[in-house]
Write a structure and sequence with these properties.
Blueprint (H helix, E strand, L loop, with lengths): L19 H34 L3 H29 L1 H18 L6 H15 L2 H12 L5 H9 L1 H20 L1 H22 L11 H12 L17 H32 L3 H7 L1 H25 L3 H22 L6 H24 L1 H4 L5 H16 L1 H13 L3 H12 L1 H8 L11
Length: 435
């Protein structure tokens, strides 16, 4: 039975905050928004970079691929570091680091400069999602983790939704360099604020005694007996390989949208750069809303079905994967701009639900001490394989003049996530062997 802690004593003038865990997840949401605005900035600045530095679509795709590869390989040590050092320190290091990498983009004058800065961005952004998963496992009862995960993961949709209109306006009025400088400054402010405010529940002076007791009782009442397994030992379990393969399917199509959505609208539908700023926001805005609704469905399903939290997340993942795959294949086949926007919005909404389900699964598969490690390994699988998507898309566009083949391939790959999660991630790791 886990020990129930008393709420830390407050200093004079301090007050407790009711439902503090939801304020905590708000910080993770804000970090995710800035994180994905930083990633999306390259897509907004791409037309100016191509014009000023004579870059091709394949060059822009290469920048997306370089980011994904460095991001992927950095996941492996990152998850271990988050579990060892905790979310507070790793969040601060990561946010400050990726903000500096973003600001450096303003000083690039050669393709190789941008390659180096995007590689640095990939390294420093790697702790974001594993740290958020760790934060969720520390602060939220198991039944609420699907909803909490959907909220912080929605930052990966709010960011790309906010980025096109806001960053396009900045670029039009102040130039493309201002995009990267302003984002860098915003990230540094957030890094300091998070470090000053965040603590684990048992060490946070603003938590109420009731909320701390609820969190501790949930820890004590966990029905699952997870194996004590080493970091390298995780790779002996089919659940981990299934999560890696499934997340590869998710990230493949996600990377195409992140890097090429504005260019797709301009190239295929003749939308102006100014118009793209607003239209490109719509699919990501819809995805954020649908993804949060997907998290609510997971939470309600887990509480009412009696099937277990891992099973319910796997069911939601499978349905969303099939729906997303079918919708992605439809994108190049619809005849009008607005029909394309609607289909893309629904497709991204189901992809957002898949991402929320995937990031909520680690705490159901392993014990709390390895949550960030498993989440990071899953993310490694997703971004290592998904790194090829932007490069392949850029090459196909340069050679065929169309995005059709890229979307058809992406739709099939997205649907395959249902197979990976349904067949390989069926139970927690309860013994230190492949079970």
């Amino acid at each position: 039975m886990a020990q129930v802690h008393k709420a830390p004593r407050l200093s004079a003038g301090q007050r407790t905050i009711r439902n503090l865990r939801w304020w905590i997840v708000g910080f993770a949401l804000l970090a995710g928004i800035i994180n994905y605005m930083d990633r999306s900035a390259i897509a907004i600045a791409a037309p100016e970079l191509m014009r000023e530095f004579n870059l091709s679509a394949a060059d822009i795709g290469l920048l997306g691929t370089i980011f994904s590869w460095t991001y992927a390989f950095s996941q492996l040590p990152t998850g271990w570091l988050v579990d060892k050092l905790g979310a507070r320190r790793m969040y601060f290091i990561a946010i400050a680091g990726w903000s500096i990498a973003t600001a450096l983009m303003a000083f690039g004058t050669r393709l190789w400069h941008f390659v180096v800065f995007r590689a640095l961005l990939g390294v420093m952004e790697a702790p974001n999602s594993p740290a958020s998963a760790k934060l969720t496992a520390d602060w939220f009862p198991r039944a609420e983790r699907g909803q909490a995960t959907a909220i912080w993961d929605s930052g990966s949709k709010w960011g790309p939704a906010i980025a096109p209109p806001v960053l396009t306006l900045i670029m039009i009025t102040l130039g493309w360099k201002a995009i990267f400088l302003i984002l860098g400054l915003a990230g540094l402010v957030l890094a300091v604020a998070f470090y000053l405010f965040y603590r684990t529940p048992e060490n946070h002076r603003r938590i109420t005694a009731e909320e701390l007791e609820m969190i501790e009782q949930d820890r004590a009442a966990q029905p699952l007996r997870h194996a004590k397994v080493s970091w390298l030992g995780l790779f002996r379990h089919r659940q981990v390989w299934g999560m890696m393969a499934g997340f590869f399917c998710v990230i493949w199509i996600w990377n195409i949208f992140i890097i090429f959505l504005p260019l797709y609208l301009q190239h295929t539908h003749g939308v102006s750069i100014k118009g793209t700023g607003w239209l490109a926001a719509i699919p990501f805005l819809g995805a954020a809303i649908i993804g949060i609704c997907g998290g609510y469905v997971m939470t309600r399903y887990a509480k009412t079905s009696g099937k277990g939290t891992l099973t319910t997340k796997r069911h939601v993942m499978s349905v969303a994967a099939v729906a997303a795959g079918a919708l992605v294949c439809l994108i190049p086949l619809v005849p009008t701009l607005w029909m394309s926007i609607v289909v893309m919005t629904l497709a991204l909404g189901f992809i957002a639900t898949m991402q929320a389900a995937a990031w909520a699964m680690p705490s159901d598969v392993v014990g709390a001490s390895k949550v960030a490690s498993v989440g990071a390994i899953q993310n490694f699988g997703g971004y290592f394989g998904g790194a090829f998507a932007p490069l392949l898309t850029g090459i196909l566009v340069d050679r065929t003049g169309s995005y059709t083949l890229s979307f058809l391939i992406g739709g099939v790959i997205a649907a395959m996530a249902a197979v990976a999660y349904s067949t390989l991630v069926r139970s927690p790791i309860t013994e230190d062997r492949d079970d």
